[in-house]
Amino acid sequence: MHGETTTLSHVIFGWDPLVVSAILFIATYAVIVSEKINRAIVAGSCCTR
Length: 49
Hints:
0% of the residues are buried. This protein has one domain (8-49). By secondary structure, the protein is mainly α. It has one helix spanning 17-47. It has 1 helix and no strands. The longest helix is centred in the middle third of the chain and has 31 residues, at 17-47.
């Protein structure tokens, strides 16, 4: 028991934590970028009326 270290090497379904964090980063980035694009489209369409 002494000297043993246990680490949690899986996050979801045994996936690599690096893969999970990369997927979350890309998904968050896509949501942020698409939100800005949608706001720009809405603002541009309101100005043309």
